[in-house]
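Predict the structure of Ribonuclease Z.
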Amino acid sequence: MSFELTILGSNSALPTSNRYPTAQVLEVPGRCFLIDCGEGTQIQLRRNKISFSKIRHIFISHLHGDHYYGLIGLLSTMNLLGVKSDVHIYAPSELKTLIQPQLDFIRGEMSIKPIFHPLNLKKPQTVFESKNIEVLSFPVKHSIPTVGFLFREKPKQANIKKEMIKAYNIPLAQIKDIKAGADFETEDGRIIPNEKLTTPPPKPKSYAFCTDTAFHPPIAEIINGVDLLYHEATFLEELKDLAEKTLHSTARQAAEMAKLSKASKLLIGHFSSRFKNLNDFKTEAREVFKNTELAIEGKKYII
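Done. Here is the predicted structure for Ribonuclease Z.
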């Protein structure tokens, strides 16, 4: 299973002429997750040729406007397009109160059905689960209650070696248990260890989304070993005092989190609009964590 992440918006609260507020799409086989929905999200979906009808699950990290002001427009457009489906929205409970009057004002019967799932803002929580994937929310450190999200593939079973089935005449009824980790006992009482009978499955894929947040070490334990970490880097170290005041992070702090959490790769974004040259962010982060990339709008990152 591959994860494909498309950046729709990489800027912080003030959009620029070429950078939108936060929004991302994570595609896994059979699922399309929208993560945050800043102003202009539906325009960016169009530009990146992502079908609105594929979006069934929307995750909102917190209720600062640059992370959800695009939601009512997106839902309205989906309705105008005649998309007929439930749309699950995972967000702080106040979001429904904020946008329900706008939903009520939409004329006629809505073809889509928004279903709100309130998030636990104080402790980690599994908010979505399917046969192959689960999504965990967890608190981060910001000026209002905010969560990050961890998307992770469920572990697969080991693969049994066909030659071992033949060599030890393994009954079909026992193959399921062997795939799950059991050893095999032959007719003459020999124990064949599982590792001889099977090949390990591929490592489950994982993606963590952490914005908006100050540097917050407890996050590292939750996302430990993640394949791709998106962590906000609103400021450079030269504005570290402002980052601390506003409970945001610098590029260096994002890199420190990647190192602390043993992430395989770091993606930084949520850039302050005061910065025009984003290469300085990459340079600063790579001094601590070499495998760092900038979140570039329209670019797809594959895990």
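The first helix runs from residue 41 to 47.
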